[in-house]
Amino acid sequence: MPSPLIWRAIWAVSIAVIVAVLAFVAVPYFASNRIVRDRIAWEMSAWSGFRVTIEGTPEIAIWPQFRATLSGVTLSKWSDDKAPPVMQAERVDIDLSAMAALRGDVVFSGVQLIKPIFRIEPAEHGMLLPSVPSGGRVARAIDAARETVKANPGKPDVVKLPKEGFGSIEFRDGRVVASIDGSEEDVVTGLSGMVDWEALNASGSLTANGTWRGESVSVEANSPQPMLLLAGGAAPFTVSLKAPPANLSFEGNGNFSAKSFFDGQAKFSAPSLRRALYWLRAGIAPGATTGPVSVSSKVSGNSDRIKFDNAEITVDKNPGTGALDLSFNDALPVISGTMAFDTVNLAAFLAAFTTTAAAPGDLDAIDTSFADRFNLDLRLSAAHATAGPIQLADMAGTAQVKNGLAVFDISDAGAFGGNIQASLRFDLRPEGTQVEMKLLASDINGAEFTSAAGMTRLMPTGTGTVSLILKGPGKSWNSILQNADGSVSATFGPGNLTSLNLPSFLKHAEDGGFFALDEVADGTLAIDGAELKASIAKGVARIDRAEAKSGQTKIWLSGIVPYAGRGLALSGGVIQKPAAQPAPPAQPAPQAQPAPAQPGTVPDGQAPANQTTSTTPPPATTPAPTTPGNGGNEATFFVGGTWTTPFVSPITRRKTDE
């Protein structure tokens, strides 16, 4: 027979099984009654500091984990019954302690929010943030931690931080909404993630992903002492944000108090700076994408000022270094600093602030709304720079935006074998935007300059100087050029005049009938120099002087060239002066003949006193024949058509030397 010890063991196991079965049956009963439901609501309220309401009776699941499922859960402010809930969830799953439930207590180990809606509202500094509870265990713990920080701000005693458990909060398929202009709008949709914080004095982390401003965004943050951060103390933390338009990360120290600060290493990257600025609502209108940008820098500052030191900056795959300063003390944020590049694309840089053309040569709308969002004072330098087809060396420039005035200057740069200075100025006035463009190119190679400008007809190739000033109103490059006033002048030294076969041109002019300029473009003309002066009014250039000299030949043009329509209305001429006739060679002076010897003459080699040496003067030099008028052959003509297809119509062919 079994010993009594064995029977006692059998009875003990049987009783344990019966108790377990009874507990399995009893827990749902005890946990499902109204008392436990109210207890759950009370515990959530005591924990969060908000008034909690639960619709219906909790559903209890025992296996595989003891869990209560609540429906229609809302958290509201105690102080405002009419305000919409701070948080509401279609369903809330709470992981509970089974033994605490049998005692009628509620102890949470984890919470899952299904389809929650979080409401945020403007804070004092303008940012949208969740409502702050007026009480609750978490709020009281933060207050206690704040006192610990005040006792020793430099190095708070972390041992004195609250030790209460927190657990984890998971959320799925949620939304963040805000009241904007009287209507409720979605800020974030498809929100899912988790807050994992075992105890208030322990490390914590946050992971979340959702859709913000039409883009999928994921956020990660963690800190070894999140309670210190919430209490306004200093603590290490890391945060990262990843989205298709931009990626951002920070690792360092900081605090979130009224005198907040941070100090650490930050990284930022974007496949398109313009797209990132537009997505971040920095006051930049959408446009064609520009090249990628990335920044890695030591960052320090507070809510009033941020400094970027030893910044490594890459713009459109061109690396550089610099230091930036971002200030929020004025009405508009102020960005200032210096940036130095080995190579930089100025078109990509400018396109971040003004709308980029979809294709080279397109002249579309100018976006100047950035001038209403921030002020800028930036110094730029580059060993090599590009502006479209233009190559620059040792460039120094500035970009300034202040009080509705935006100026982009190249104060000095080597280009086309010489030097250039350029300026682009936007003056934002109530009556409309005024744009001013200036260019001064000195000692440049005419062939390189005209090739970069896309001008290949009748262009000088010698060394010269070009000056251009344009100013006009408009909201697009085309409208500005169609209404611009200004001037253009150019002077070139010896070189060639491209795309002109002068003998063929004169032959066509003599034959009469109009002809395309392309028919006589199979040659070049060596010239001694060329000069151009023109005034511009309402987008129409009036040529006051345009001449090219080649030996005894002079080619001149005058007339108007309107920007709109790209038409031509010019008259011109070719003047050929004959070379001056050379004077005949001088005749040698006749030799003086000695007189016959007479008695009593003087010795040999001496003339008599009463005789003189006589000479015959040379004949006068014959002057070159003169011609009437200009003294040569002249062909006059009219140039019409368009910039791309000009044609020539002879007016007369006169021989003045016959």
What would you say this structure looks like, in words?
The chain is α+β, with helices and mostly antiparallel strands and 658 residues long. The longest helix is centred in the first third of the chain and has 29 residues, at 4-32. Mean pLDDT is 81; it is low at 356-363, 594-631 and 654-658.
Share of residues in strands: over 45%
- Cα-atom radius of gyration: 45 Å
Biggest sheet statistics: 30 strands, mixed
Uncertain residue segments: 356-363, 594-631, 654-658
Tally the beta strands: 32
**Treating each run of at least 4 consecutive H or I residues as one helix, how many helices?**
10
Provide the helix percentage.
10-25%
Compact summary:
With 658 residues, the chain is α+β, with helices and mostly antiparallel strands. The protein has 10 helices and 32 strands. It is elongated.
Indicate the topology.
Blueprint: H1 4-32, H2 34-48, E1 51-61, E2 67-76, E3 87-96, H3 98-102, E4 108-122, E5 128-130, H4 137-151, E6 165-180, E7 183-199, E8 204-212, E9 215-223, H5 226-230, E10 235-242, E11 247-255, E12 261-270, H6 273-279, E13 293-302, E14 305-315, E15 318-327, E16 334-345, H7 346-351, E17 375-387, E18 390-402, E19 405-415, E20 418-429, E21 432-445, H8 446-452, E22 463-473, H9 477-483, E23 485-492, E24 495-497, H10 502-511, E25 515-516, E26 525-527, E27 529-537, E28 540-550, E29 553-562, E30 569-576, E31 633-641, E32 646-655
Parallel strand pairs: 4-6, 16-17
Antiparallel strand pairs: 1-2, 2-3, 3-4, 4-5, 6-7, 7-8, 8-9, 9-10, 10-11, 11-12, 12-13, 13-14, 14-15, 15-16, 17-18, 18-19, 19-20, 20-21, 21-22, 22-23, 23-27, 24-26, 25-32, 27-28, 28-29, 29-30, 30-31, 31-32
